[in-house]
Design goal:
Low-confidence stretches: none
Order of helices and strands: HEEEEEEEEEEE
Radius of gyration: 38 Å
């Protein structure tokens, strides 16, 4: 075979190999100073459907109970670390402090109207391991009226000796749906 023909064929034989190198991607270079990408860890997620409860109007003799549902919509175990209320008139307890992914638990709240009067706005503060919202709260609100209203609230007779009779009027108003009987006045 002629050397001229051979020299002409060599570049044609090498052409497919060169084209294969152009289309084959080269592996990414790894620099020793580059940090490996962070792995995303599964996280818990606290979801409370009812973040506020209005108990309406009650009297100072009433107690209101309510149940809230807390759900873990995350992919890791949710821990309720603490519950705290803003008033001694409101208490809260939880059925389970550890909630598995996809599960739920109940939070029980009790509001006592005793020694309260007027509009009420109290909070149940929740501290958890939810990385998006470590601190959250539930609002409990309503109005407390007095079960028994005295008008006037006080009557002062001053100095009284046994010879004089004194009297005064007192209006008693009962604001309860149940019947009330006065059994003694002294």
């Amino acid at each position: 075979m002629n050397t001229k023909k051979l020299l002409f064929l060599l570049p044609l034989l090498a052409l497919p190999a060169l084209r294969a190198q152009e289309t084959t991607p080269s592996p990414p270079s790894q620099h020793p100073t580059e940090k490996p990408p962070k792995l995303i860890q599964p996280q818990p997620r606290l979801v409370i459907d009812e973040k506020a409860f209005n108990f309406g109007t009650i009297t100072d003799a009433d107690t209101v109970h309510h149940t809230f549902v807390l759900r873990n919509e995350g992919a890791a175990q949710l821990e309720i670390k603490t519950l705290h209320t803003t008033c001694g008139c409101l208490s809260a307890s939880i059925e389970q402090s550890v909630i598995q992914p996809g599960k739920e638990t109940q939070l029980y709240a009790e509001f006592r109207g005793e020694n309260r009067d007027g509009d009420q706005f109290q909070l149940i503060n929740i501290l958890s391991n939810d990385p998006e919202e470590r601190k959250t709260h539930i609002i409990v609100r309503g109005r407390v009226t007095q079960a028994v209203v005295l008008d006037p609230e006080r009557i002062a007779f001053g100095s009284v000796d046994g010879a004089e009779k004194q009297s005064n009027r007192l209006r008693i108003k009962f604001q309860t749906p149940d019947p009330v009987a006065i059994t003694d006045i002294s």
